[in-house]
């Protein structure tokens, strides 16, 4: 969110206010001092009200878009140790974290599915009423991962896992691809 100063600068540099400032200068140079002062006061009051309203709306949008929940990640303390399961807040996720996918999980970020599969409700994002089956990305693929072309492997932020289907005794896992406003949901906001 922009600072108060930046929002005020954006507001003042709007063509309407540039015209008002120019008019006020001209009126002060002419004998219309009282009228110019009245217009200046009204313009300043209007710009401040607009600034406060814009700032409040931006904060509300940011708060609506934020979603936080607890997720289980697999992290190594060092490259030579086995990964440990840790329960952390989704606000602490970073791209590259390995996340366990569970039934009824609302995804807090964009995730590339690495093992297992998941039936996902994407209606929040796409409006599609039917659940979509997402499969794990192939392990031995000669192609480089492309987030646009390989959407069938991506669990998008804000969508919900209806069922996580493990393969064998492995848990359903994925790698965090994008977080925050860089996710598919974040770009919509």
UniProtKB/TrEMBL annotation:
GO terms for molecular function: ATP binding; ATPase-coupled monoatomic cation transmembrane transporter activity; metal ion binding; P-type transmembrane transporter activity. The keyword tRNA processing does not apply. Keywords: ATP-binding, Magnesium, Membrane, Metal-binding, Nucleotide-binding, Phosphoprotein, Translocase, Transmembrane, Transmembrane helix. The chain crosses the membrane at residues 35-54. The keyword Membrane applies. InterPro entries: ATPase_P-typ_TM_dom_sf, ATPase_P-typ_transduc_dom_A_sf, ATPase_P-type_domA, P-type_TPase_V. It is a multi-pass membrane protein. Residues 86-189 form the P-type ATPase A domain. GO terms for cellular component: membrane. SUPFAM superfamilies: Calcium ATPase, transduction domain A, Calcium ATPase, transmembrane domain M. Its main location: membrane. It is found in: Membrane. It catalyses: ATP + H2O = ADP + phosphate + H(+). It holds the Pfam family E1-E2_ATPase. This is P-type ATPase A domain-containing protein. It comes from Hanusia phi.
